[in-house]
Design goal:
Elements lengths: L10 E7 L5 E6 L6 E4 L2 E8 L7 H4 L7 H44 L1
Parallel strand pairs: 1-4
Antiparallel strand pairs: 1-2, 3-4
């Protein structure tokens, strides 16, 4: 077997599920700057967004995904982006007109 392949910096670490505040004490090499105190002992803390205690597959909870709402939100963002693009284009045309009018006015005053 290859030597020095696996890290040897395993230590006790607490993983905390942010959905339901469930904590797990296990060994890991995960880097972290945060700490937590469990049973009057301070451990490094790694926060996770989902774990087996909150994942629908393990909990048996069914979550309904609002697909129509997502499509509507996407269409609204696309429409807002198109409106903003049109507004910038109109502003650029207006600014170009002002520039040409200024230069024409300047030429007339010089003559």
């Amino acid at each position: 077997m290859k030597k020095n392949l696996h890290p040897d910096s395993y230590r006790l670490v607490v993983f905390k599920d942010l959905n339901n505040d469930m904590t797990y004490l296990t060994r890991s090499t995960a880097p972290t700057d945060e700490t937590i105190e469990l049973d009057e002992v301070t451990y490094p803390l790694v926060k996770v967004h989902i774990s087996s205690s909150s994942h629908p597959f393990f909990t048996g909870e069914e979550r309904i995904v609002d697909i129509e709402g997502r499509v509507d939100k996407f269409k609204a963002r696309a429409a807002a982006g198109a409106a903003a693009k049109e507004k910038r284009a109109n502003a650029a045309v207006k600014q170009a007109k002002r520039k040409t009018q200024k230069s024409e006015k300047k030429e007339k005053s010089q003559v």
